[in-house]
Amino acid sequence: MDEKIIIAGFGGQGVLSLGQFIAYAAIADGKEVTWLPSYGPEMRGGTSNCSVVISDRPVASPIISAPDCLIAMNKPSLYKFQDRVRSGGTIIVNKTLIPDIIERKDVKVIYIDAGDLSLKAGNPKTANIVVLGAYVKQSGLFSKELVSEMITKKFISKPKLIPANLSALDLGYNFA
User: Fold this and answer.
1) pLDDT value of position 42
2) What is the pLDDT of residues 46-72, one digit of tens each?
3) Parallel, antiparallel, or unpaired: how do β-strands 47-55 and 2-10 relate?
4) Which CATH superfamily is domain 2-175 in?
5) What SS3 class is residue 11?
6) Cβ atoms within 10 A of the Cβ of 67, count?
7) Is pLDDT of 82 > 80?
8) Where are the domains of the chain?
9) What is the pLDDT at residue 44?
């Protein structure tokens, strides 16, 4: 089993954190993982992306040429990476910032209004966690409960953030 994911968006959208949550969940599930961040010097507001490779065996390289899944949080990221997704793969589109319709017919596309759902969760900064929930559901790689544990551990020093993040995970999972 190999799963190759590219997550991309603006700096400050939680793109790298989203990749880390997927990586941590895979590690907790006993998988081999690489997580490779990439961002420009602009940081917040500039583009950023990360690659996550999950496997049952040691990962030879963190470089992904044809991802199984693209999570696009903004339009420039969608157009930069959508053609690289392998045929039969999945593209998760944050339709809050990307109103466009994907023309490809050989991939599964999930359009999720991460901004609206994050507001329903109680914190507009949880759009990345909404998308995480959708990814967890569509991939079936690990349980929502396992990811909930990762979120709780990540925010243990900021307990006020835990309920909104868990709510965002549920909303994204149930949407997908």
Assistant:
1) 54
2) 679 999 999 999 999 999 999 999 999
3) antiparallel
4) Pyruvate-ferredoxin oxidoreductase, PFOR, domain III (3.40.920.10)
5) strand
6) 22
7) yes
8) 2-175
9) 58
Alpha carbon distance 37, 34 (integer Å): 10
Integer-rounded Cα radius of gyration of the chain: 15
Q: What is the C-alpha to C-alpha distance for residues 39 and 8, in angstroms, rounded to an integer?
A: 10
80-85: long-range contacts, CB 8 A cutoff, minimum separation 24:
80/8, 80/47, 81/6, 81/8, 81/49, 84/6
Which amino acid makes up residue 100? Answer: D
Q: Tens of pLDDT along 87-146?
A: 999 999 999 999 999 999 999 999 999 999 999 999 999 999 999 999 999 999 999 999
Q: Hey, CA dihedral for 67, 27, 135, 156, is it positive or negative?
A: negative
For helices 127-139 and 162-175, what crossing angle results, to 10°? 40
17 vs 51: CA distance, rounded Å: 12
* Burial class, 115, CB count within 10 angstroms (exposed 0-12 / middle 13-18 / buried 19+): middle
Q: Distance of CA 1 to CAs 28, 32, 56, 85, 92, Å?
A: 16, 10, 6, 17, 21
